[in-house]
Amino acid sequence: MTDPVADLLSRIRNAQLAHHESCVIPKSKLKLAIAQILKEEGYVEDVTEHSEGPQGSITVKVKYDDRGLGAIEKIARESRPGRRLYVNKDEIPRVLAGMGIAILSTSRGVMVGRRARDLGVGGEVLCSVF
């Protein structure tokens, strides 16, 4: 697999579109950090880490509202293996005028764009969610 982050986002998107309760993703530190951010920001209901097998896995419980609509309207990969997208602290994108989030990989770890802006660090824009 050439882009594990895109695989994570696609699995979450597909689980939501198919109205599944949860999805299972092969574990890595980066994917776990992204999933935890999605949980903290309220886009997924729960994230559970499993250590069975050689790599382990992550179970992401998808969040729906009362009408059965998913909490994530759009989840998109921004930086790709063939076209990396790096920004400095002044260029961090505001997704949907602050209604969505941008997830960045910085020198201080994986974090939401507004936190990176507050800390004054830039980095690689991994994805945007709203």
Question: Total strand count, please?
Answer: 8
What class do helices, strands and sheet pairing give?
alpha+beta
Number of domains: 2
Number of helices: 3
Could you give a short account of the major beta sheet?
5 strands, antiparallel
Low-confidence stretches: none
CATH topology (level 3) name of the largest domain: Ribosomal Protein S8, Chain: A, domain 1
* SSE topology string: HEHEEEEEEHE
CATH architecture classification name of the largest domain: 2-Layer Sandwich
Question: What Rg, in angstroms, do the CA atoms define?
Answer: 14 Å
Strand content: 25-35%
How are the SSEs placed, and which strands pair?
Elements: H1 4-17, E1 22-26, H2 29-40, E2 44-50, E3 57-62, E4 75-77, E5 86-87, E6 101-106, E7 109-112, H3 113-119, E8 123-129
Antiparallel strand pairs: 1-3, 2-3, 4-8, 5-8, 6-7, 6-8
Q: Mind explaining what this structure looks like?
A:
This protein is α+β, with helices and mostly antiparallel strands. The chain folds into 2 domains: 4-62, Ribosomal Protein S8, Chain: A, domain 1 (2-Layer Sandwich); 75-129, 2-Layer Sandwich (Dna Ligase, domain 1). The chain is 25% helix and 31% strand. The chain is built from 3 helices and 8 strands; from the N terminus they run H-E-H-E-E-E-E-E-E-H-E. Strands 4, 5, 6, 7 and 8 form a 5-stranded antiparallel sheet that branches. The protein has a 3-stranded antiparallel sheet with strand order 1-3-2, with helices on one face. A hairpin with a 2-residue loop joins strand 6 (101-106) and strand 7. The longest helix is centred in the first third of the chain and has 14 residues, at 4-17. It is globular. The model has no long low-confidence stretch (mean pLDDT 97).
